[in-house]
Amino acid sequence: MPQQFWKPGADKPRILEDEEGGVVFFAPSLSSASSSSSRFGYASIGSQRQRLPVYKYRTAILYLVETHATTIIVGETGSGKTTQIPQYLKEAGWADGGRVIACTQPRRLAVQSVASRVAEEMDVKLGEEVGYTIRFEDVTNPAATMIKFLTDGVLLREIMDDPLLTKYSVIMVDEAHERSISTDILLGLLKKIQRRRPELRLIISSATIEAKSMSDFFQTSKKHRGPEDHEFVPRKVPAVLSVEGRGFNVQIHYVVEPVSDYVRATVSTVLSIHDQEPAGDILVFLTGQDDIDAAIQLLAEEAHASRKISSGLIVLPLYSSLPRAEQDLVFSPTPRGKRKVVISTNIAETSLTLEGVVYVVDSGFSKQQFYNPISDIENLVVAPISKASARQRAGRAGRVRPGKCYRLYTEEYFVNEMSSVGIPEMQRSKLVSCVIQLKALGIDNILGFDWPASPPPEAMIRALEVLYSLGVLDDDAKLTSPVGFQAAEIPLDPMISKMILSSNQLGCSEEIITIAAILSIQSIWVSGKGVQKELDEAKLRFAAAEGDHVTFLNVYKGFLQSGKSSQWCHKNYMNYQAMKKVIEIREQLRRTALRLGIVLRSCEGDILAVRKAVTAGFFANASRLEAFSHNGMYKTIRGSQEVYIHPSSVLFRVNPKWVIYHSLVSTDRQYMRNVMTIDPSWLTEAAPHFFQNLRRPDPIAH
Ligand code: CDP
Ligand code: MG
């Protein structure tokens, strides 16, 4: 690729300028950082800690937290916010007397990674003084844990059992700029909790927070009574602290013409960097496992074709469902004389730090959830990123020395068309889970809730309607007893919860819990690349005429009969790690079910009961084969959307007349994943209200 393909950006080379217009409160640097590096080849952990940008602000941070109810900390990725601030708080005594310091993350992978890093820095065993909790995995010791990392979703669940989160002294809501649904709900609730618990301290930290709007959010309280019984009242106005980064300049390069295929453009850019630029690792931002795998494949082909160009390249993927061992490779140091290329989703944008990156290739896209309340369809689509994200991505190149960022879009596009910040997840998602959680927390007026960003009313109404049809909410939009309260206790989509609850009456809870566990992981099969034919044949060995859900039961039975053997999985093109995870999740769900008073019972092969239980949860996802369709086109019963059975389903090309699906994925079309045949009369049986306005399902046989 010729060099003139690239146009250097007119952007100021310093990327992370302050865009908020002077809201940033600067604290004096009270402690002096030790800038001298260790005399030894490797810096000790202690001196590494002192060289992080936040270290200079240690005293300032502790002072602000002491004196303010809420402190907002803005700082570049890698400045030490996540790993250091909880330790400073602990050192200052915030974990004394059995209290706990919490630090939330939107992503599970980040929770595990930072927790183990902090345990290492403190030289303690993970799960003791430093622990973490993610859904289905609790690595803490209630008697010993002082610093706890957790997803914001898990903290929300804790509010159900302990509405004032009494065991925490400080809660740090990290990565707040990501504006995940759980982060937004959490911020709204923490603001309420703080009014009842003035001694609770909040830290809102992030890389590119809009500090002004966050600060406004925490300042304006609707009604507030002073905490008379406390001698010391922390200031209500949030403190805002900007932690200066130590990022180096990053030169931005744009393409001159828009690229048509960003995967190919990525590969040629990586190869030309490797060919022409000095040593330094490359971080590539693509959108998901599919295009990451495609890029790796293409790089391998190119490497084969031109051995000279690509020698010395170590190409590694990074996405959240990657097995632990492969994740560790990404974080391990690059061997001398080699160049690492990490091809990542936007997980590496802010929540994980990779050392040694000097070049960034930014595709300009990420996978984002979009929900259309009219069609009631939620899609994960490849969509353009925002300027804030683009700056973050570029910033990853300047951690160790001046770097370069190659943007696979034009400068005109960046300047004129890219939106400046992303849309909060709350405003582009289905809200069923969010609504049930708020209801369970006793928040009745959901539309009047104090949101950092209000969700669209249509999406709220849709969610209320589905929950009403599931029997989770009553006519007054309150949780029903017991179904509503029980459904809220299960940490899964309410449709799955309802399916589990229905299995109790239908006498098939053991089977349904297996199905629920398998549905909650991405896939139990190995990825089909290069082995599609063998994979299809393997699936046929387990395939059930009733569809994927029943097939899962056959698979699970086979796995147990093999003695949970990894060879058996290998032989059957099944992902052994995924099956182990299924066993784990299943065990957790069993415990939850027992707690809810569900009788664990097997239906001993009465598949009809299983199918009815699935329908009781998923009736809203029913669709019907178009009468004269020759290409397998279905229409959803609610919304009349065109959908097709996904090629990974055992019902692909079988095309039964009536089906329900677990989820939709959209590529060139809308595909139904995990599909099961039903009898249409079950729909009106399961949810009369939901289907009352539809024409009667016609009883024509298949
Ligand atoms: O949160 P923030 O992005 O400000 O920084 P951090 O995650 O606390 O990272 C601070 C430093 O710790 C960085 O230099 C990271 O490279 C290092 N770190 C690490 O080596 N391993 C981790 N799992 C996390 C952080
Ligand atoms: Mg961080």
From TrEMBL:
EC assignment: 3.6.4.13
Catalytic activity from the UniProt record: ATP + H2O = ADP + phosphate + H(+)
UniProt name for this protein: RNA helicase
Keyword entries, A-Z: ATP-binding, Helicase, Hydrolase, Nucleotide-binding
PANTHER family in the cross-refs: ATP-DEPENDENT RNA HELICASE, ATP-DEPENDENT RNA HELICASE DHX35-RELATED
CDD domains referenced in this protein's UniProt entry, alphabetically: DEXHc_DHX35 (cd17980), SF2_C_RHA (cd18791)
UniProt GO molecular function: ATP binding; hydrolase activity; RNA binding; RNA helicase activity
Domain Helicase C-terminal as annotated: residue spans: 266-442
Species, as recorded: Salix viminalis
Domain (Helicase ATP-binding) ranges: 62-227
SUPFAM superfamilies named among the record's database cross-references: P-loop containing nucleoside triphosphate hydrolases
Pfam families in the cross-refs: DEAD (PF00270), HA2_C (PF21010), Helicase_C (PF00271), OB_NTP_bind (PF07717), WHD_HA2 (PF04408)
